[in-house]
Specification:
- The chain folds into 2 domains: about 140 residues, Urease, subunit C, domain 1 (Roll), CATH 2.30.40.10; about 325 residues, Metal-dependent hydrolases (TIM Barrel, Alpha-Beta Barrel), CATH 3.20.20.140.
- The chain contains 14 helices and 18 strands.
- Strands 1, 2, 3, 4, 5, 14, 17 and 18 form an 8-stranded mixed β-sheet that branches.
- Helix 12 crosses helix 13.
- It is globular.
- About 50% of the residues are buried.
- The C terminus is likely disordered.
- InterPro entries: Amidohydro-rel, Metal-dep_hydrolase_composite, Metal_Hydrolase, Metallo-dep_hydrolases.
- Keywords: Hydrolase, Metal-binding, Zinc.
Length: about 475
């Protein structure tokens, strides 16, 4: 597959690059084999000697797909409800019941998970880190559905040998560890016969969080993660009631417990971490673990916002998570905007504290801008997930995970979806202001197509009038 047009990506935090009129070649296995300016001799040779390219018209560009670092797949069942409750009560009255219902009904699980994949893809999410349920077979349904849909999915079978719901718990630490081992083996076997580039699903060890896991279970999972080099995910330092519970029951912070259990590793993603202070964030950075920042669910279930700017300044790997259903919006566009809004509110608090003498001058703004948020949703998330080299950008050797965005129809001059341009659309180049406008107010009406590993997952066989030539299968 050959594509000619404008590309937008973030090479680093706040480093947004627009590659205008470039040629990109995608191999049959879905990797970027060539990238260069369209006027270069190499590009001209490719354009003249190869198959007809897909030509992106003016007002249309490619951007990497989004990475969602924290989503509870079974909770998609009741997305958008129950958010009036505190965390521990919400878990008992909504989360555990929904997860138990899917474990009891495989047909329902397949329906819920299939619809989830459709929602993810149409919203431009190409990679997702998933919490599942405690039953092995239900998580294998989730893995199968994600693999079939073509999404990069990291599937976590929940491990929990303590529960406030007697019917939704694993009977012992040893049983939970055996169940985790079984899921890991079955998940690997499910894709073992596929070529390496088509193995899009991986298992993740998933202790729900410290209140639902005994010390024996956490230590056992830590040993398993180390022995098999497995990914780990959980929740850490999320809510005031959860922190108090752990301190009261265990006499330590949950971060101390995870570290002692060898569950803070470069292959770990911890969600939330809103109650971590700068010294603790420094320890996270030293461990190599990543943090999934979930600004919307934090607004509902945490008593304070995540120290995003401090974490970034300290070198912590950070990406964004929707946290369905603690967050109600599956669209990563909303997640990016919320991350910026929360950071701006934190900066406002800092400014007022300095002005009122409640705080001395410090090292600068706590705000995060839209370009940084776009990095977190793409390259930052890919780095946190340890995706293949170059993932989250357009670079030779990187997997082609991309979404095609249309701002206006060049043939009619009409803006698309919620976007309005009043200074004419006969401009020659895509501008930073145009990309920012899409970031701020664009929606799925602006999304023409989605690819993961070079395979188109979503979008019509669009004609040139819509900004893109028909796309042939690339896998």
């Amino acid at each position: 597959m050959i594509i000619r047009g404008d590309l937008v990506h973030c090479l680093g935090l706040g480093e947004l690059e627009i590659l205008r009129d470039h040629v990109l070649v995608v191999s049959l296995s879905g990797f970027i084999g060539y990238l260069g300016a369209a006027h270069s001799p190499e590009s001209n040779e490719i354009l003249n000697a190869s198959e007809p390219p897909i030509v992106l018209e003016r007002g249309t560009f490619l951007v990497p797909t989004f990475c969602d670092l924290h989503l509870h797949a079974p909770q998609f069942l009741y997305q958008g409800t129950g958010l009036h409750l505190p965390l521990m009560q919400w878990l008992n009255e909504y989360a555990f019941k929904a997860e138990e219902s899917l474990d009891a009904d495989p047909a329902l699980a397949e329906r819920v998970y299939t619809r989830l994949t459709e929602r993810l893809i149409e919203n431009g999410t190409g990679a997702v880190l998933l919490f599942g349920t405690i039953k092995v077979d239900t998580n294998l349904i989730l893995a199968k559905v994600m693999q079939r849909a073509g999404i990069r999915a990291f599937v976590g079978k929940l491990s929990m040998d303590i529960s406030s719901r007697p019917t939704y718990v694993e009977p012992s630490a040893s049983t939970a560890i055996s169940s985790a081992i079984s899921f890991v083996g079955s998940c690997h076997s499910m894709v073992a016969q596929l070529p390496a580039h088509e193995r899009l699903v991986e298992p993740v060890l998933t202790p729900r969080f410290v209140p639902t896991c005994s010390d024996d279970l956490l230590r056992g999972l830590g040993e398993l993660a180390s022995a098999e080099n497995l990914r780990v995910q959980s929740h850490m330092a999320e809510a005031h009631d959860e922190l108090d519970f752990v301190r009261r029951e265990r006499g330590k912070s949950d971060m101390e417990i995870f570290a002692e259990s060898r569950l803070l590793t470069p292959r770990t993603v911890q969600a939330h971490c809103t109650f971590l202070d700068p010294p603790s964030l420094t320890d996270v950075a030293k461990s190599g673990a990543a943090i999934a920042h979930c600004p919307l669910s934090n607004a509902y279930f945490s008593a304070k916002p995540f120290r995003l700017r401090e974490a970034l300044n300290l070198g912590v790997k950070v990406g964004l998570g929707t946290d369905i259903a603690g967050g109600y919006d599956i669209d990563m566009m909303g997640c990016m905007r919320q991350a910026v809004a929360v950071s701006r509110m934190r900066e406002g608090d800092r400014i007022m504290a300095v002005a009122e003498g409640r705080r001395g001058q410090d090292n600068g703004s706590l705000a995060v801008d839209w370009k940084e948020a776009l990095y977190l949703a793409t390259r930052g998330g890919a780095t946190a997930l340890d995706l293949p080299a170059g993932a989250g950008t357009f670079a030779v050797g990187a997997p082609f995970d991309a979404q095609c965005i249309q701002l206006f129809d060049s043939s009619t001059g009409s803006s698309v979806g919620p976007l309005d341009f009043f200074d004419g659309t006969d401009r020659m180049w895509l501008t930073l202001d145009m990309v920012e406008k899409w970031w701020c107010i664009g929606d799925m009406r602006n999304r023409l197509a989605v690819w993961v590993q070079g395979k188109q997952l979503w979008g019509k066989e669009l004609g040139s009038r819509n900004g893109i030539q028909p796309i042939a299968s690339s896998v």
